Structures are given as C-alpha cells and as structure tokens.
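The methods section describes the discrete structure representation at length, but only in general terms. An entry of this sort, consisting of the sequence and the corresponding backbone structure tokens, reads as follows:
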Amino acid sequence: MHNPPPPDASFVPGSAEPGTETNVGRLAATIERLRREVLRAQMAAEGRALIEVAKGVLIERLRLSVSGAAQQLATLAEQAGLTQLELAADIINQAAQDRISEAARAFLAYTQSEELSREAADVAVRLRRAESGALQATDAQAVVESLLEHALTPLGATAVAAWEAGPDGSLTLVGYAGFGAEEARRWRYVPPGVETPARRALVKRESVWIKDLSALGLPSIGGRDTPGGRVAVPAGTGGRIFAVLEVGWPHSLPVQPPQVRKQIEALAELCAYTLEAPDRPASDHDLQTLPELVDLADGLPDAALVLCPYLDEDGRLGDFRIQHANAAFADPAGRPRTMVAGALMLEAYPLAAEEGGLWEKIERVHATGEPYRAEKMTLTALVDQVPLSSDAAVSITRHRDAVLLIWRLRDESTQLANLLQHAQRLGRIGGFEQNTATGRILWNNQLYALYGLTDGEQPIPLERLAEHCHPDDAAAIGRFLHTVLHHRRSASTAFRLQRSDGIARHIRVVAEPVLDEGGRPLAIRGAYQDISSQHWTEVALAATRDQLAHSEQQSAERNRLALQLQQAIMPPKREPMETFDLQIAVRYRPAEQEHLVGGDWYDAVVLPSKQIMLSVGDVAGHGIEGATGMVVLRNALRGLAATGAGPAQLLAWLNLVTHHLTDQVTATAILGLYDPETRILRWARAGHLPPILIRQGEAVELDLINGIMLGAVSEADYEERQIQLATDDILLMYTDGLIERRDRTLQHSQAQLLRTAIYPTTSLEHRLDNLLTHNHSDTDDDTCLVGIQLN
C-alpha cells in the first residue's frame, strides 16, 4: 500500500507523479498564455491601424463611405488572394511613395515565384507595422524596440541602437534594444572625433556595412556581446543628418542584396523622422527666424554670410540661399553685398561647386554639424566670365539649420605684412625708426612688449638707452651709440635691459643710419631682439657639461645593476632539464650594449599539480626599469600558476597585476602548461609571437590566437588552445630579439626562422645554439629561447 505524498509535494519541482502538473508549471503556462495574448493584441492593434489607413486612402481616392471602403477592401483582398492586412500595406505603399514603399517595390521586383511574392508581401507588412509602432511610440526607446521587433529580427539582427548627432559632431545614444543597460550607460555619449561605425557613417554621409566588427577592431556599443556584422545608416531631412541607426548581428554578415539594404535605409529614415525635434525651424527659413544669427554676423569684423538650405521638389538639399550678408562683406569679385544677398550660393559663386571646394565644405558642415576652419583657402569668382582667385581664411559653422560662413580676404601686401609679423613674433624682434630731424619715434607692437610698455606710452629715444640697461653694460652702449650717431655706420651690441616692472631681459640691438644724398642723417632704423633664451641656454649648457660626467657615471652604474639583476634571474645558459618524458633547454642572450639591457624573461618549472609550466615574455623598455618589471611579472606568474588555473586565466590575472600593481609597465608573453599524462600542451598568448612546432622534419607556426598585450587595459580575455604532442616533437618559444630586423618585415624574418629551425642537429641544445648563431636580427635586443622535445 502506497503512502500519500506530503501536503506540499506539489510545490517541489519534479516531485509530482507522471501526468500531473505542479503549481509552478501552471503559473508558467498562465504567464506564457498571457504573454501570447498581449502579443496578439499588439499585432492586431497595429494591423487594425494599417487597415484603417488603407480605408482612408480608398475613401479619399474613390470617394467612398466608411462602410463602402471596408467592403471594397474586403472584396479586393479576396480577388487578389491576399489578406486584408497585406492588401492594406500594398495600398499604403502605392499612396505614400516613400522609402518604405520603395523598399517594398525593390523586394517585389526581386521575387520570381509565388513563394517569394508571399515573402515580399510579408516584408511590406513588417515595414508598415514597424512604421505604425514607431509613430505611436512616446520616446526613442520605444521606436527602436518597435523597429527591432517588427522589421529587423526577421533579417537576423539581434540588436539596434539609435544615435542623435550633435551640432559638434558628437553622438548621443537615445534608444537601444538588444544591448544590456550597463553597456548602454557606458556608451551614452561619444565625443567628437572618436572613430565608431556610427561616427564613420556620419562623416561619410553614407551607409557603412561591416562584415565582422571583431575582425575590424572598431569600437562600438555591444562590441563584446555582439561582435558580428554591423551596419550604420545616417538619416535626416533637407541634407542635414541628425540621426544614425546602427544594427548588429551576432554572426559574420555576408554581402546583403540591394533590397535588404533598402529596407534598412527606410527604417533609418523612419527612425530619424520620429526623432526629429518638433521645434526645428522649417527648411524655407524666413529672415525673422534668424535674428540672433544675423546680429552675430553683423557684429563680426570679417565678411560673413548667413546661409539657409534650399530644398528641391523632392525635399533634398539643392543649394543654399544667401539669407544675409553683413556690413563687413567683401566679395572676391568686388560686388556689393546687395547683389549677393537673397541669391542662391551656386548662382552667386558657381565655381564653388568644384570638387573639394567651398560648397562641398558648406554641405558637409550642414550635414554633420562638424565645424570647418582653414587659414588659407582659395576662393574663385567669375568677373565677366573670367575666373578671379583670392586667398582667404575661412570658417564655417552650423547654427540649428542655418550655416554661418566667414572669410577674410588676403591680398599680397596683407600676406607679406602678416608673414613679417609672424616672423618678428617668433624671433622676438621689435623694430623701430627714429627721425633725427623731428625726434619722432615709431615702434611696432613687439618692441613695446619687449620693454614692458603699453602702446600709449612714450617710446624711449636711442640716446637714452643707457638709462634702461644694467650699469655694467653702459660702456658697451656708449660705443654702440658713438658708432651709429657720430661715425654714421651700422653697429650692434648686447646688453641687459632693466624694465620698469623689475624684469631683466638679455637684448641684442642693431641699428643703421639713413642718409640723404649729401650724407646727412635723416633717421635711425633698427631692431631689438630678445636673446634671453639663448643666453640662459648657454648658461644651462655650461652647467650641463659639469653634470654630464656625473650623469654618465650614474647611468653606467644603473646599467651594471640592471645587467647583474638580469643575469642573476636568468643566466645566459642553464643546464638542460629532463622531467617525465620531456627534455627542456633554455637560452638567454643579453644585449651587447649594457644600456639596452631589456626585460625579456623565460621560465620552466614543475608545478605542484605535476604539470610543467613554460613561459617566455618581453617587458617594454630597457635598463633598470625593464629588468625590475621582468622580475615582478616572472615571480607573479610563478605564484599564480600554483593555483592550478589554465593558461588563459593565468594571463588574465597577470594582466591585472601588470595594469594595477606596476608603474606603467606593458609586456608581451606566451604561456604553456604541459600535462605528462595526456601529452597535451595547453597554451595562450598576450600579444606575443606564436610558438613553432617541428614535426617530422617540418616547422610550422601555431595559429595566432587572440590575446592583447599585458597592461594595456585593466580587464582582458585571452583565448586558449591545446596541441597533442607526439614522440620527437619539438616546440620552440622565443622573443622578438631573435628575428627582428630594421630592413625587413617581421613576416620575412619569421619565414627565415622556420627554415633555420629544421636544420638537422644532434640534440635539443645544439638546435637552440644553432638558432642563436644563425639568426638574422640586427636590433641588438636581448633574446630568450625555450625549447622542449618529447621523448
């Protein structure tokens, strides 16, 4: 006789007898049923919305009543063999003539069978449902969720993000689906200039299709979780891009047919339409809507034009209307501003349409919001059908939907004066002219700055120069003045200027008299040059010479200590090691020059788990810093290996040590764990060259698996591989000092190493010695080499 189950047995999963349901199972079934009902209700509501829109089209086109339109829709659907929803989507496509209908027509043209035609109808319904959901959405988050659910998931996409383009070229994440909340917080804002798929699409102003995001190495939202295919599509209206739609696939994305591309472009335009700000000014700007920009242009000292986009019949950017020209406007063709104000840009300046010319820069700034500035740009205008070119400094910025164009024309005299001004500023030279008859003195701005005076103060006559110099320099100043004023010859001297603000400067002055035809002096012209930096450089150079011998001695001592530390940890040659069925040989060759002693290391040790750890690494840098970094990482790896973790985990931990517990150290490394029982070697790499396997007289490199160098980032994942070793197999690990050359690529040197590695030898040690002897490196870097051979 069976005992009855306990009263609460129905609450324990798996405790119910066959054929019965638990309360948890009933609850799960109820939740799933309600979820399906909600989904069906949403789809039905969206379907009813499309059918109602189609009825409205029939009412407007056929002048039917509401009931008549409903009956007509049902009749047409029955005759066409379609559902009312499919027919409604087709009617809307025919009436709308938008990007969604264009995508549907492209897919229909691609179809060749009844099955594909049915798929084309499904595409039209999906796109219109996505449109309905987006238009009913209350925020950008709901928009992207609707796009992913209705239109992108059938294409295999699993994630989507909507970016809003800022006026400075930045990107702000305004909606996402398929990405985690933490990932979205990390990518909520992308500053200008950061290269991402969305940024690339914004700058290029075209769709960017990426087959494999992980292979390209371009950062983006969800790069780790969704590393497969990506597409970024810019969208906007009137030539202005203010949104980018980015779609992600979990797998590599093959080349997509044109009809799929059109679908995604239509969704991007729909996303941009729903995200468009309601207060954005209309494209046919009236002057009254731009008072602030007009006031700004009128307050500028340079020529400025306020440009507004001029759209064609299809709503695309065709040109820019010159809405306003400021009072300082200077036309390259000499026309007054009244002749260009109100005209189209390409009508007033047709040669601006040249490739890479002014109009292209204006269009780019208007589309992306990224400002453009150039110190020198050639502007070409037509004067009686003759092109006239002028150089100008140009600035182009976008203000909401308008563009502000500023230029400053530069004629030859202006360019020469500007060049001279820059030369005087860079050389810290101040010029002067003193009229001997009237006593009038003319200084340039740089000379006022040298004396520490303002432009309104009285210049200092040459005769009173001694009053402003150091007393010890008075004699030299006297000889200088006597030569210039009495002998009427050019002269120069150096002195220490004592300024009124207490600052002393070392100055060189040169002057020459200007004489008339009779030899009488008319004026004295000359220049002052601040040579303080040169003087203090000479003083510092003298002090440096005194310290150089001491510094060289200290450097030699540091190099000696680094070399001793390197040799103490890793002697150039260690006795061969044989454990279990494995022979191990190591070699270390230090750099020939002591100051190039680096951070290369090797290690071969039997762990408590009876596995054999083999490692080779290279710390960036030379000298004592490289040697101490090598000691830290080598010892840390030994301690971490005692945990029994695998090579990938050990490198991940060693990366944390390198990033957080060392002072700006980076390194490459390769790590292997050999199990004598299975004869399997598991290995991982961190930015290092892969091992070489020699088997049956042939040498090959193992696959280059993923793994970033140590210390580059705080957290990193490393790939792990394994290889089954056979008797007489030889495995070599080495650092780049073995093969690196200045005149050849790394691939060429690696190929040469493979040829050298198969040279027949009598033992493993002889093979390592042969590799060191016949290597072709010329960088004088230290080298580590570890070899194992299975008996």
Notes: The chain is about 40% helix and 25% strand. Residues 659 and 714 are 6 Å apart (CA to CA). The chain has a mean pLDDT of 78. The chain has five domains: 46-136, 156-280, 287-410, 415-530, 568-790.
